[in-house]
Design a protein that fits this description.
Elements: H1 2-36, H2 39-70, H3 74-106, H4 114-120, H5 122-142, H6 145-151, H7 154-175, H8 180-212, H9 217-230
Helix pairs in contact: 1-2, 1-3, 1-5, 2-3, 3-8, 5-6, 5-7, 5-8, 6-8, 7-8
Amino acid sequence: MVKFIETELEDLGREVDQMWTLVRNQMEQARQAVLDMDRGIAQQIMVRERRVDAFELKIDSDVEDFIALYTPVAVDLRYVLAMLKINSDLERIGDYADGIARFVRDCGTESLDPELVEKLQLKIMFATVLDMLGELQTALREENAEKATSVTDNDDLLDRINKASTGILAEYAAAHQNAFPLCLGLSSVFRKLERTGDHLTNIAEEIVFYIDAKVIKHDEAQMAAKAKEAR
């Protein structure tokens, strides 16, 4: 029975890893679609979104069945609960990639102003999100809590770039009257990437909880409160 349970857990882990790879590919394609304003790639992303949704439902069902059949405890319970929550976060990230693709599809602009892209740090924003996705996937595969924790530092960079983008886009829209719809859409892209960072931080917390049985989100909240008091 113990060997059978171990096999079930390994199968669940492979499913989540496959879901993760799919979502990461979706975000990589979203980057290319935006930077090139490629509607063909955007359409491919929207089609594959159905696979992301199907994966989420399958993993949810497998977790529920495992808990019902085996009533796991200790590390096994932490593992399946972590997989359940990570699965949900990955699905949301897939939604953001789909939303970015829909912006590209619906935008009437054929190409982005390279100077605007540079000023917005759009490439850095995407690169940071993709690096976080890759590092956290490795952290889970290697059961490396330290690597998972270190990735969360990148979320601050995403927050700063997103915050700065508002003023940059407002200035650009004021100087280019026909660019208002584009700027509005790009603002939505930045919000989606910033929210992706939040979900990746959640994933990092779940990895640490599974491996070390340690809740780090409260530690971060306390640190943020102290920093606020210091200001």
